Amino acid sequence: MSDLDVDRLTTVIEDFNTIFIRLPSIRRLNFSALSVLHTLDRNGPLRLTALLPTEQLKQPALTSLVAKLEDDGLLERRPDPTDGRASLLSLSPAGQEIVHSRHANRVAKLAALVDRLTPDERAVLAGSIDVLHRLTELAEDQP
């Protein structure tokens, strides 16, 4: 690991994330609400208890957030077929539209930035996609 400056990598990722999360200008929602929508888009339908570890909120705060998203028509709650006492949360069509339009907006804005890179820089960036994906997998595997 001596050939990798992890401190600089961390700073660069933090700076990139700061810019990246601000790219979309479509319907402003707070970070926690967007995180729930994106988690359900990728992993849903889920029980509320399954969202707790991914969203890093206490259960009362998450319960309140989910209720607001449901009231806003962005989430739907259905009975869990494996346990009649529990509910599964999933995106409504309006919630799906927000997630997908934000993604499309980010793709367009990031593509415009990538177009400004040199061919060598684009090649390096392309080569890092699999490595960043692997880091994400490793992080998800940690308790």
From TrEMBL:
Keywords: DNA-binding, Transcription, Transcription regulation
Name the record gives this protein: DNA-binding MarR family transcriptional regulator
InterPro entries: HTH-type_Bedaq_tolerance, HTH_MarR-typ, Tscrpt_reg_MarR-type_CS, WH-like_DNA-bd_sf, WH_DNA-bd_sf
GO molecular function terms listed in the Swiss-Prot or TrEMBL record: DNA binding; DNA-binding transcription factor activity
Pfam family, one: MarR
Gene3D superfamilies (UniProt xref): Winged helix-like DNA-binding domain superfamily/Winged helix DNA-binding domain
Domain HTH marR-type: 1-134
Highest taxon in the source lineage: Bacteria
